[in-house]
Design a protein that fits this description.
Elements: H1 16-32, E1 47-48, E2 59-64, E3 70-74, H2 77-91, H3 97-104, H4 116-121, H5 124-130, H6 144-156, E4 163-168, H7 174-186, E5 193-194, E6 197-198, H8 206-213
Parallel strand pairs: 1-6, 2-4, 4-5
Antiparallel strand pairs: 2-3
Helix pairs in contact: 2-3, 2-6
């Protein structure tokens, strides 16, 4: 007895719901995403032929402007939260949740620890007008850069990928850079990264010859 062949029908998948979900997700991320805030200071770094790229994460950064003001920054909101919480507990700063959140989601910090509460209670444009962005002290009598480094290392929890970077302006006074380097030396931190602009190697040098051979 012959078998009855059923006619084949093409399967139709309605993608309308999937498109709606995709656009809803896109809209959500557009509205919810917060961009990285602008840094409070702009520096013009010196040039070098080093081609190593600055990592996007696991970085403790000290930025020094041409006037010698030092600013501290560190990536990772959970780590920044632990850092500011530890500083608040140790120095009895009395920071509110809003002030601590301003540090967690904010940019670099460049003020004395005693002024940190007032600093974090203001908007970035207000800090400049208030004259609080005097930089983190580096002198031997009050070396708060050492404090920030110590508490930042603790917040990192022994991260083996952690890197220390110094981003200084081309006109930064050398004594200020020496103070920072001495601070790292005192903390037994021997490996540092100096942030520079990339320039072409001088003709005839080993670096230029190696580039031409590639």
């Amino acid at each position: 007895m012959p078998k009855v062949k059923m006619p084949r029908k093409s399967t139709l998948v309605d993608m309308t719901a999937m498109c709606d979900v995709a656009f809803l997700l896109l809209t959500f991320f557009m509205l919810a995403t917060k961009f990285k805030p602008d840094e409070p200071v702009t520096v013009v770094t010196p040039s070098s032929i080093n081609t190593k790229l600055l990592p996007d994460s696991d970085v403790i950064m000290l930025t020094v402007d041409k006037d010698g003001r030092v600013f501290f920054s560190m990536d990772g909101q959970p780590k920044r939260q632990k850092l500011i919480q530890d500083l608040n507990d140790q120095y009895k700063l009395g920071l509110s949740d809003k002030e601590m959140n301003n540090f967690i989601i904010g940019a670099s910090v460049g003020t004395e620890i005693k002024n940190l509460k007032s600093y974090l209670s203001m908007k970035p444009e207000e800090r400049k007008k208030a004259g609080l962005e005097v930089g983190i002290p580096t002198d031997s009598a009050n070396n708060e850069v050492a404090v920030w480094i110590e508490y930042a290392r603790s917040a990192q929890g022994g991260n083996p990928r952690l890197q220390y970077c110094v981003k200084a302006d081309n006109q930064t006074p050398y004594p200020k850079i020496k103070d920072i380097l001495d601070t790292f030396k005192d903390k037994k931190i021997q490996k540092l990264n100096l942030v520079t602009n990339l320039e072409a190697p001088p003709p005839g040098t080993a670096a230029a010859l190696a580039r031409d051979e590639k």
